[in-house]
TrEMBL record:
InterPro entries: DHP_3-monooxygenase, DhpH_subs-bd, FAD-bd, FAD/NAD-bd_sf
Pfam families tied to this protein: FAD_binding-like (PF22607), FAD_binding_3 (PF01494)
Protein name: 2-polyprenyl-6-methoxyphenol hydroxylase-like FAD-dependent oxidoreductase
Organism, scientific name: Streptomyces avidinii
Residue stretches making up the FAD-binding domain: 311-374
PROSITE patterns (alphabetical): PROKAR_LIPOPROTEIN (PS51257)
Domain 2,6-dihydroxypyridine 3-monooxygenase substrate binding: 188-250
SUPFAM superfamilies in the cross-refs: FAD-linked reductases, C-terminal domain, FAD/NAD(P)-binding domain
Length: 420
C-alpha cells in the first residue's frame, strides 16, 4: 500500500505569508495565481492537469468594454492582449426576398471586445509572477478541508499536499467543488451548442455582405435556435468565430447525462451531416456558406449545462470561474466573471486579517454574482433557443421589448460591475 506523503503547513502561519494552491491553470487559474501572489501570499502553486499546449484552444469569447476597463485598471486583464472591437449586434432571419444575407429585423449596440481563448490565456500566463510555481501535468484527484487550519489536495500519484488555502479554478468538472458542494452538479439545459472558427480571409469569396461584418455581431435567428457569428483575433490573423444553439442530435451520439463534447477534430461524419442539414434548412444562404468554410478540425459540439452552488467559499476551500458557477454562454460573461473573482480575492486578501474573514467576504460578494449570472443566462436561453419567438414577424420595437424581458431588470449582458 502506498503511504501518502503529507507536506504540512504550520497552523500558526499568518495570512500574509500563506501557502496557496490553485487547482487549474487556465484563464481563471492564471488570474487567481497572479492576484494572490501580488496581494501578498507567501507561496502560490498552480496545479494544472493538462500536459499539452493550452494556447491551442481556438474558441472565441467576448468581454464587455466596461468590464474590460475595470479589469484593466485592477491589473486582472493585462494590457497588450490582442482583441477585436465590436460595436453592434444585428439579428437576421432568412428571407429570400432580401437576398442571400437575409433580413435584419433588429440592430442593437454591442460594446464588447472579442478574444481568442488561447491568446487571452497566453497573455494571462505570461503575466503570472515568477514567484508562482506552475506545475503542468499535475492531476488533482480530490480536496479536503483540514479542520480550519488548512486544506489538503490529493494528487494522482497518491501524495497529499497541505496548503493554507485551496482555490478551485478547475472548471465545470471541479474536484474542489465536489469537496465544498458535493450535491452541486451541472444540469443539462435541453439543447446543444455547435462551435467553430475559420480564417476571416475566406469571407472575401462570399460577396458584399462581408463588408458590414468586421465590427458587427450577426445573430441568425430561426425556430428553435440561434447562431452568433463574430470576428476574433487569431495567432495568424483575424478569424470568424460562431456559436450555434439548437436542439440536440437525435441519433444518440452525444451523452446528455454528463457534461461532454466532441473536441475540435473529433466531429463524427454523422454529426457533420446533421449540422450541414440544419444550416442549409434554416440559415440565409450567405451565412450558411460562411459556416461551411469551417474545417472539421475546427468544429465541435457540446451539450449546454448550467449550475449554481450554495457557496463559493467555506473552511479553507474557495471556488472561482466555472468551478463556482456554470453559466450558459448566452450571457457573454464567463471570462469577465473569472477575472472579477480574481480581483475580489486580491482585494479581500489585502483588506482582511484572517482567512476566515477573507472567505466570508468572498462568499458574500462572489456567491451572489454567480447566482445572478446563472439566472440571467437561463432566461436568455429560454428566449433564444427553448421558446423562440416569431422573429420574422417582429419589428424593432417588439424586438427591443422582447430583449428587455429577457434581461429581467439586469442592465445588460456581459456581467455586472463589481461592488466597491
Amino acid at each position: 500500500m502506498r503511504v501518502a506523503s503529507v507536506m504540512r503547513v504550520d497552523e500558526e502561519t499568518v495570512m500574509r505569508g500563506g501557502r496557496v494552491a490553485v487547482v487549474g491553470g487556465s484563464i481563471a487559474g492564471c488570474a487567481i495565481a497572479t492576484a494572490v501572489a501580488r496581494a501578498g501570499a507567501g507561496e502560490v502553486v498552480v496545479l494544472e492537469r493538462t500536459r499539452g499546449r493550452l494556447q491551442d484552444r481556438g474558441v472565441g469569447l467576448c468581454i464587455h468594454n466596461e468590464r474590460g476597463a475595470e479589469l484593466g485598471a485592477s491589473g486582472a486583464l493585462p494590457a497588450g492582449i490582442a482583441a477585436h472591437p465590436l460595436e453592434r449586434r444585428r439579428w437576421v432571419v432568412r428571407d429570400d426576398a432580401h437576398g442571400p444575407g437575409g433580413r435584419v429585423v433588429w440592430e442593437q449596440p454591442f460594446p464588447f471586445r472579442s478574444y481568442h481563448w488561447g491568446l487571452l490565456w497566453h497573455g494571462l500566463r505570461e503575466s503570472v509572477p515568477d514567484s508562482v510555481v506552475y506545475r503542468q501535468g499535475e492531476t488533482v484527484t480530490g480536496a479536503e478541508g483540514a479542520g480550519g487550519s488548512g486544506a489538503d489536495v490529493r494528487l494522482a500519484g497518491g501524495s497529499v499536499e497541505r496548503y493554507d488555502l485551496v482555490v478551485g479554478a478547475d472548471g465545470y468538472r471541479s474536484v474542489v467543488r465536489a469537496a465544498l458542494c458535493p450535491d452541486s452538479r451541472p444540469e443539462y439545459a435541453g439543447y446543444v451548442c455547435w462551435r467553430g472558427n475559420f480564417d476571416a480571409a475566406l469571407l472575401t469569396g462570399l460577396g458584399p455582405v462581408a463588408d458590414a461584418f468586421p465590427e458587427a455581431v450577426t445573430t441568425v435567428c430561426f425556430a428553435g435556435g440561434s447562431c452568433v457569428i463574430y470576428r476574433i483575433p487569431g495567432p495568424d490573423g483575424p478569424r470568424v468565430n460562431w456559436v450555434l444553439y439548437a436542439a440536440p442530435p437525435q441519433d444518440g451520439s452525444l451523452r446528455l447525462d454528463d457534461p461532454t463534447s466532441f473536441p475540435p477534430g473529433g466531429l463524427t461524419p454523422a454529426l457533420a451531416l446533421q449540422l450541414a442539414a440544419l444550416v442549409d434548412r434554416e440559415f440565409p444562404p450567405y451565412w450558411g456558406r460562411a459556416l461551411a468554410l469551417t474545417g472539421p478540425a475546427d468544429t465541435f459540439v457540446q451539450p449546454i449545462y448550467d449550475m449554481e452552488t450554495p457557496r463559493a467559499a467555506a473552511g479553507r476551500l474557495l471556488l472561482a470561474g466555472d468551478a463556482a458557477s456554470v453559466v450558459r454562454p448566452h450571457n457573454t460573461s464567463g471570462a469577465a466573471k473569472a477575472l472579477q473573482d480574481a480581483t475580489a480575492l486580491a482585494d479581500g486578501w489585502r483588506g482582511c486579517g484572517t482567512f476566515e474573514e477573507l472567505l466570508r467576504g468572498y462568499q458574500e460578494t462572489r456567491g451572489a454574482a454567480g447566482r445572478d449570472l446563472v439566472a440571467l443566462a437561463r432566461r436568455l436561453g429560454r428566449a433564444q433557443v427553448e421558446r423562440t419567438p416569431a422573429w420574422a414577424s417582429m419589428n424593432g420595437a417588439e424586438m427591443a421589448a422582447w430583449w428587455r424581458g429577457q434581461l429581467g431588470g439586469s442592465p445588460g449582458i456581459g456581467g455586472r460591475a463589481m461592488n466597491p
